[in-house]
Structures are given as C-alpha cells and as structure tokens.
Amino acid sequence: MHLWLIPILPLIGFLINGIFGKKLSKPVVNIVAIGSVLLSFAWVLKTFSGLYPLEEAHVEKYFTWISSGTFNIGFDLMIDKLNSILLLIITGVGLLIHIYATGYMAHEEGYYRFFAYLNLFMFFMLILVLGANFLLLFVGWEGVGLCSYLLIGFYFTEKFAGDAGKKAFIVNRVGDFGFALAMFLIFIQFGSLDFATAFHAAEQMPKETSCGILTGICLLLILGATGKSAQIPLYVWLPDAMAGPTPVSALIHAATMVTAGVYMVTRSHAMFNNAPIALEVLAVIGLLTAFFAATIGLAQTDIKKVFAYSTVSQLGYMFLGLGVGSYSGGVFHLMTHAFFKALLFLGAGSVIHGCHHEQEMSQMGGLMKKMPVTAITLFCAGFAIAGLPFTSGAASKDLILEAAYVHHPWMYWLGLLTAFMTAFYVFRALFWTFFGEYRGHAHPHESPISMTAPLMVLAVLSLGGGFINIPHWLESMTHEHHPHVDTLIAMLPFAAGFGGIALAYVMYVLAPGIPEQLASTFSGLYRLIYNKYFVDEAYDAAIVHPLEEGSRELLWKGVDAGIIDGVVNGAGKTSAGIGGVLRRLQSGSIRNYAAWVVAGSILVIVAIGVMGGSH
Amino acid sequence: MNLLDIILFLPLIGFLVALLLPSADLVKKFTLGLSILIFILSLGLLGPVLSDPKVYQFETNTPWIATPKIGYHIGIDGLSIWLVILATFLTPIAAIISWKYIDHRVKEFFAFLLLLEFGMLGVFIALDLFLFYVFWEVALVPMYMLIGIWGHDRRIYAAVKFFLYTLVGSVLMLAAMIYIFNKAKTFDYVQIVSAIQSHNLTFTHTEELLLFLAFFLAFAIKVPLFPLHTWLPDAHVEAPTAGSVMLASVMLKMGTYGLVRFCLPLFPGAAHENAYWINMLAIIGIVYGALVAMVQPNIKKLVAYSSVSHLGFVVLGIFSFTQQGLDGAVYVMLAHGISTGALFMIVGMLYERQHSLLIKDFGGVATAAPNLTVMFVITTLASVGLPMLCNFVGEFLVLQGAAQANFAWAAGASLGVIFSAVYMLWMVQRVFYGKTPESVAHHVTDLTPREWLAIAPMIVLMVWGGVYSQTFMPAISSGNAKILEMSKDTHKSDWNSEQHKAAATNAH
Predict the structure, then answer these.
(1) Looking at this predicted complex, what is its ipTM?
(2) Buried b vs exposed e over B224-251: b needs ≥16 C-beta within 10 Å?
(3) Do residues B126 and B139 lie in contact, with contact meaning Cβ atoms separated by under 8 Å?
(4) Same domain, yes or no: A547 and A580
(5) A238 lies in a domain?
(6) Domain span at residue A377?
C-alpha cells in the first residue's frame, strides 16, 4: 500500500519550502505546504479504505536502519486499527490547520519558514504513529519535539519565545530519558524492539516473573509520556509553549503531538495489562493532572493560557481512562479532544487576530457581534468540552468517568468535580470574550474565510464526532467490556457541565462584580492558583539554579581549574625546563622540529638499550 | 608497494614538497589538491575491506630496523577503515577552512597539516607496536606546532600542557611496549596477539595489570577520560580552527582506537577486571563534561567540554564488552568526528567575523547570517543525539550495550543526553536568537561559497550516517566481533591456576 508515501509527502513539502521557500511567492508556498498534506490525507484515506476493516495489522518493511549483533531495527511502517484513527486525525485536522494558518500567518515574517516547520512536524508525527517498532516511534517522538522547539521559538528575536522553546525541549528530554531506558529494558528482556515480537513475548511471559520487569518498563514509559503529554511532574513546558503562533498551539500542543504519550501507552497495552501497579500510577497521575490543571485554569486571564491548562487537564482525563483500563475511552477522548481543542485554539487565534494580537481577555468583550462565526463555532467547542449531551466530548468523557467509577469511585468524583470546573472556566473565557461590552482599543473584525472555514468544519466535528464509535472499532484490539453503571452516575457529568456553564453565566454575565469580590476575599488562594502554585519557581530554585551554580562554582572553578589543573600546573612548574624548551617552539622553525624528532629517537633508543641490557 | 602504502606516504612526501615550494599560494593549492587525491585514493580501500572486514587487507610486512627487530607492518580492517577515511576526508576540509584564516607562516601551516595526516593514518594502520608508537609521536609534533605557532593568546600555556600530559602517557606506553618485546621477542602486533590467544605468551596477574595500565593511561589522556581531560579545553581554545577540527575529529580517536585495538586484545583479563572503575570514570566524564560545558562563557570551550562528554560514551561502549557497546563506540567516534568537527568549523567562522569566542559578544546571529545559523543548528541537533542524524545511532547502541552489561551504567550515562540538550540549546539561544546587536549586524555575514564547500559535505554525512547507518556498520561490526572474540576473559583461569600453584608451593 506504499505507506511510506504518507510521511514522505509532507517531508517533500518541507524540503521544497525549506530550501527554496525564500524565493517562492506566498501562493506557491501555500500550494506546496497544503498540497503535500492534502495528498498525504488522501493517501491515508485510500490506504484506509483499501485495507478496511483492518482486522490484522498491515506491516511494510523497507530497509535496515541499525544493525549490530542481535540488535536489528528496520525502517518498518505499519497500520492497524489504533493508528489508523490517529492517521486520520493528524492528516485531517492537520490539513484544516494548514489552511487556517495561511490566513493567520499572512502578514508574518518568515512565512515560508513557518510552513516548512509545519510540514516537517507532519512528517515526524506520521512516523511516530506509523513506526512498527519502539525506536521508530522514538524517532517521531524526538522529531516532533524538535519541531515543537522550532515553532515555539518561531519569533526567535523575542527572548520569551526562545526561552519557552528551550524549556519545552529540555523538559521533554527528561521524559525521553525514561523512554530510552524503557527501550533498553525491552530489548534486554524480549530481544527485540519490534512491537509484534515484544508484545507477543510480553503476553507469553508467566505472570509471576513478568510483573516486576514489566512494571519497571511501564513506569519508565510513563515518565516518557508525562514529558510529551504534559502531565505531572513534567507539564510545565506546555503553558509556556503558547509563545508559538496559535496554529502551532492548535496542531502540535492540542490536537496531535501532546497525545503521543496516550498513543504510546495504548500501543503498549500488552505490557501495561500485566503491570497493574503502573496502570494505577498512570490513573493517579492523569487524575491529579486533570484536577490541578483545571484549578489553574480558573484564574488565568490570557485566553491561550486558559486553553493550554485545559489541554493539560484533558490529557489527564485520557491518562485516567488508560489507567483504569479503558484504552478505548482514552483514545476516543484523544479524538474528540483533537476536534474541540483544535477548534478552541483556532477560535482563540481568530479572536487574537481580529483584536490585533491582543491575548488578554480583560481587553476583549462583546465580540459576539463583531465576530459571529468565530463566536458561534467557539461556543460549539465549549459545549463539547463541557460535555453537554450529544456532543463529542460527552461521549468520550463519560466513558472514561464510568470506567473510573467502576475502578475506584473516588476517581469518578474527583473527575466529576474537574468536569464541573472545566465547564466553568471555559465558559468564563467565552462569556468574558464574547459577551458584555468591548473593553479594548483595537478595531475587532471577523477573520477571512480561510480561517473561518476550518472553524466551521471543526465545529461540526466537535458536536457530531461522538457518533464515530471508537470503542466499537477498537473492540477486537482491547477486548474491553463496557461497564454498566447507575443512570445517576452516567447522568451526573451532564449536570456538572450545565452547572459549570450556569455558574460562569451568573458570574461573568449577570453579576460581573462577583469574580473580583471572590478574588479579594480569598486573595491568598487566588494568588496561589493565579501563579500556578509557584511550580516553575520551585523547579528553578530546587533544580535549575543549584545545577547551574554548582556546575560553575564547584565543578568548573573548583574541580577543573582548582584541583586538577592545580596538580597539573604544579607538575608543570617543577619541570620548568621543558616549558623553557617549548617556549622556543614559537620560533617554529623546521630545524627545531627536526631536533625534537632526533631527541625523541635518541631517548627511545637509549630506553631500549637500558631495558634490553637489564636481561 | 600497495595502495595503503601509497596513501600513507603521499602526505609525508607532500609535507617535504610543500616546504620546498616557493609561494604560499602554491602550497595552499598543492595541499588541497594532494589531500583530495589522497581522499579519493583512500576510497579505493573500501571495496576489498568491506568485502572481508575481518582480516587485514593491504597488508605490508617488511623488516624496518634489524636490532631490535622492528617491522614496517601495516594493514587495514573493518575497525580502522572508516577512521582512515575520516582522516583523509577531513584533511582537505581543514585546508579549505584555513584558506583565509591563516595569514602568517602559511607554507609551514599547510605542510604541517600534511604531516599530521601522515601521523594519524599511520596510527590507524600500524600493526607493529613500535611502529604504532612512532606514528603516535609523529602525529603529536605537528599538533604542537599548530597550537604553538598559529594559536591564540595563551598558546604557549596550552601547548606546554598538551605536551606534558601526552609525554607522561606515551613514555609509560613505550616502556610497556619494550617490556612486552622482551617477553615476546617481537613488536609485531599480530604475532603477539596470536601468542596471547594461544597462551604461548602469558603474563602474571601483576604484569598484565601494570602493562594494561601503562597503555590505558596513554590512551585515556588522549581520549581524554575524566579526570585527565584538562588539557583539551585549553588546547581547543588556543588552537586555530583547523587544529581544533583535526584534534577533535581525528586525534582524540587515536586514544579510543588504541583502547579497542590494543588494550582489549592484549590484556583481556586486566581489561575486564578494571572495566568497572573505568566505566565509572566514563560516566562521570559524560555528566561532568556536560555540566561544565553548560556554564562556559566561551563557545569553543563549551564545545571542547562537550567532547569530554561525548568521548565518555565511547569509553563506556568499549568497556561494556558487548557487540552493541563496541559498535556504538566506534560509530560515535565517526559521528563525533563529523558533528563536533563541524561545530568547531562554524565556531571558527564566527571568530573570523567577530574576533571573539565569547558568547556575550554574540546574539541574533540568525538574523544576520541565516544560512550559517541553519547549518549550526543542524549540527547542534546531531550533537545532542537527535534521531536521523549520525550521533544518535552510536549513542543509542552504546547505551544499549552498557545496559546489557549493567543497567545502572546506562541510566547514569543517559543523564548526559538530557544535559547535552541543555548546554547546546542554551548556547544556540544566546548566540543565534534574540535581537541583533549593532556589532553583530555589522560584522557577521553569511556563509561564503568556500565555507559552503567545507560545511555542506559534513551536513550530508550527518544525515547519511543517521538515516542509513548500514553503509558503515557492517565493517565496524565485523571488526569489533573479532576484537570481542580475542578479548574474552579467559585469563582468569590462568591466574587461578597460578594462584593454586603458589598456594600449593606455600603448602609444601
């Protein structure tokens, strides 16, 4: 089926725009960038329909990438039920975002550079999900990290953009450290990094011996996932990543790259299923991340920051789903989230674009009349993330919460509270932005059709995407039994959604004085969450600063210059004669050189004589 | 006279000819032309060696000195082939980047470049211990000169330090060689190794340990292994660009090559016995080098400390005694040669423009010189081990091999991968991103065609090595398989029986 075409097409787009882009006109850059993704999307559709219903994984082997002894890694791509969903999301949503970006980036410097990076991202993201072994997945994993770094730092003349890009890359490296160690263990244990071989071997292992090693492997994989998918303790890079252009936030930091951890864990479910402790850890990390990120979201005033924390929070839901054994729930939420979160970001981008690069919601308000398409589509996304009945978000989130209830009821209740907060803070942002009177000083206008058309497509998907029956599609892979819970338990998430929206309506439309009152009454708590629990500051004080100062003062000036060179220079002074001779090297004549060789040879011959004579 | 002899001696002849040529301009062209010719000729070695990388190809073995019997014995196999090509490949590139940079004593500079090539090639193909020692020393002389004559302000200090360190190591190695000669009655590497394999030549436990340590010290200084590394940052900072490139790319590999070629097969027992603390030093070096690199105010010093970190991976791979570890180690030797060589080249280009190596004197170079920036960033990504670029393949294999030997080693060394991203990206941010100050905008221009000529092949190789490692790996792998076969730890039984005998004697 020529799976290789799927990633190669965007790579070609990257090469053309990357190398010749400077000399190409904008329409040509657009055709290359959008065309390559469009063709890739078309090829995914063709492959998908050709292989439907994909009961067996389809693997294609191209060439050996690394081979050393028994360690063999092929450049092998595969498609199966799981990654076919992701392929459709990546190329489909990716295509919409590319189209949107032609409008959003129209007046930016480095237009071609932006699209080159975006295409390169598509290449690596497609490799990530198509790879048939852990190392190829890792190639994509690192590659998307690189593109994320480049795109966050797109406005590289600004210090904050450079800082944010660097932070994203380095924090992700901490996760990659775990991922790499997991791969070493997988190879040692199973003798291969191929998915098929490794998972088969993992399933065949007797339970008594497998638990320890598999738990170790899975915990390390989880560390990897917390980096890429922005979970506690490595979520800190994602909010800063909003320094990049908004289409990047939508594509990379909402719809695709950040879900790579969810994909990786689901892909490895054969291992996780035999590592119950790791699954429990995953569920707790996911739930706590969902909850804490939601609390931070309550107090943010930058529209992109609100959605960034909401992404962290929603990713937490996905991991909760995986951790409580509902892989299909996690993947389902991955898909619906891709629709409504991409829409939230693109909508936010449309607002920012319309308000001339204003991101503070205190400078917005009353935009409903000025940007009706943006407003209505954004409300659609809001309904979905709030989990109102029949929206896509409801279908997937309820699946996760029900599975959580069966696993441990407290997880359900905390998840429910989070759902309530989510509905509240998202609608707080929407009401604040679109209702009331305009508070800024720009002249807001609706965005061009290239931007609003993708919004409308995504709005339809956000509302109706829940009818794509992912749990059924994945049934043969995950073998899950969908739990039956009380009607009340199944209905409460709807109530949480409506309740959150209602509260936001009261506080931001009916009685707009309440938020300030609350903030001053609970000023300590407010400052704590407004400042994101001071986690960045704590990391700086506990890790970054000691590492930097310790390296400078202790290692470099202490050990290197002080101790080691102290000894060396001491030895050097005692043999000052040698130094004196060497000083004459400056004259550098050939005679000097010849003298050296002769002197050296004499030394050697004398030495041989002495040694030989001793016998 | 076979092809290998010709390739070895052409640079020496070239060195002599260059000194006789009348004009500096002519010497430049002559050096470039000759080194390109040597590179092309060296590609001719590939066919036979790759078809059978386990045996020594293009072998020449004739007596050189009658008493003591020293042979001119050279040959090339899967382990050395790519190192030889690395040396022949980088020499013309070093000539290109020195074209304008060197403005005094031009003739000698280019002549020494050829002499350096002669020494380095000899080191990688010598199959006689004494011959190896001679080349080892020959290679050092032109490097002293490059640093001492064409270096920056503190060049004398750096040259003295370089000399002192190296002298200590190589004198002990020479003594050990002579000791072996006295026992084996030959300096011939192939004969000695086969005698050791067949147990015709045995060392006592103490003998083997001391001999191993003498060789090891010489190589460890050259690598350099922590804590013997402090000559390297000074040498790099003071050296002219071409000197830094050759030093980092090829000369350091003389040390790691020596470890593989000599320390493992000659003293397998001692090598195994000492692997634990050697690997600890390697891991300390990986992390320490990275942390110290992070806080350097000088770009070149930063890259130099990063070499300490990268070379730690090589040592760790070698002393993991696994196929993956050794293959990865040799691959890192090559990959580091390309990526760090390219880093030093571009840093040199920055120096030529701004006349400073301090990070604080730069900023916003991306705006002033976009192409140069792209090349630097690609090289940086190779250096931090991004997959699909060359270093990743080697470092991953090293870590995989180390994990098989001891998982904690892999975990410790992997920390270096995190820190490498920290120091490189932080430097990239401060030098290339941000607003462009007046002086940078004024002085830092983009790549010239000559510079493109030097940097483009390096970038191509970074991608090639990262995507299609199978070009290089099969030969390396067979070479290493042979080394591993020879360095099995069979000597423990000998020592045990030795101890039994001693115990038995005592009992009587």
Answers:
(1) 0.91
(2) bbbbbbbbbbbbbbbbbbbbbbbbbbbb
(3) no
(4) yes
(5) no
(6) 281-297+305-525
User: Among residues of chain A, what percentage have pLDDT more than 70?
Assistant: 93
With respect to residue B406, please indicate whether it lies within any of the assigned structural domains: yes
Cβ contacts of B397 within 8 Å, gap of 6 or more: A66, A68, A71, B317, B324, B325, B327, B328, B331
Tokens of A162: 């450079």
- Indicate if A511 and A379 belong to the same structural domain: yes
Interface probe with A: pick from B21, B409, B414, B484, most Cβ of A within 10 Å: B414
Q: What is the pLDDT of residues B151-206, one digit of tens each?
A: 888 888 888 788 778 878 888 899 999 999 999 989 999 999 999 998 899 899 98
Position B141 scores a pLDDT of 85
Q: What does the pLDDT average to over A130-144? A: 95
Q: Is residue B257 part of a domain?
A: yes
Please indicate, yes or no, whether residues B286 and B269 belong to a single structural domain of this protein: no
A355 and A322, same domain (yes or no)? yes
Q: Are residues B208 and B295 in the same domain?
A: no
Can you spell out the DSSP letters for B313-344? Answer: HHHHHHTTTSHHHHHHHHHHHHHHHHHHHHHH
**Could you tell me if A374 and A521 lie in one domain?**
yes
Residue B368 structural domain:
279-471
**B112, B232, B388, B423: best mutation site toward chain A, by most A Cβ within 10 Å?**
B388
Q: Based on the domain organization, do B164 and B104 belong to the same domain? A: yes
Q: How distant is the Cα of A358 from the closest Cα of chain B, in angstroms?
A: 22
Is the predicted pLDDT of residue A590 greater than 50, yes or no? Answer: no
Q: Please check whether residues B307 and B241 belong to one and the same domain.
A: no
Put simply, the chain A residues between 25 and 84 with a CB less than 8 A from any chain B CB are 63-71
Residues pairing with B128 in the sheet:
B188
Judged against a pLDDT cut of 70, whether residue A484 lies above it is answered with: yes
pLDDT of residue B68 exceeding 50: yes
- Please say which residue of A525, A546, A563 terminates a domain: A525
- A406-432 pLDDT, tens per residue? 999 999 999 999 999 999 999 999 999
Judged by a CB distance cut-off of 8 A, whether residue B347 touches chain A is: no
- Mark which of A525, A560, A595 sits at the end of a domain: A525
| Residue B426 at interface with chain A, using a CB cutoff of 8 Å | yes
What is the domain count for chain B? Answer: 2
Calpha distance A304→A239 (Å, rounded): 8
Same domain, A289 and A362: yes
The pLDDT score that the predictor gives to residue A576 is: 52
Written as one string, the DSSP assignment of B124-179 is HHB-BHHHHHHHHHHHHHHHHHHHHHH--TTHHHHHHHHHHHHHHHHHHHHHHHHH
Residue-wise pLDDT for A364-386, tens only, equals: 888 988 999 999 999 999 999 99
B20/B113 same-domain check: yes
Q: For residue B490, is it within any domain?
A: no
Q: Write down the residue that tokens 């900072």 correspond to.
A: B237
More confidently predicted of A53 and B245: B245
A437 plus A512 within the same structural domain: yes
User: Tens digits of per-residue pLDDT, B410-447?
Assistant: 999 999 888 998 899 999 999 999 999 998 889 999 99
Is residue B3 included in any domain, yes or no? yes
**Domains of chain A: total:** 2
Residue A11 resides in a domain: no
Between CA A406 and CA A508 the distance in angstroms is: 36
* pLDDT-wise least confident of A11-25, A370-384, B491-505: B491-505
A444 and A372 both lie in a single domain: yes
pTM: 0.93
- Decide if A124 contacts A144 (C-beta within 8 A): yes
Question: Cβ contact (<8 Å) for A68 and B473?
Answer: yes
What is the pLDDT at residue B64? 84
Q: What is the mean pLDDT of residues A551-578?
A: 77
Strand runs labelled E in A222-338 = none
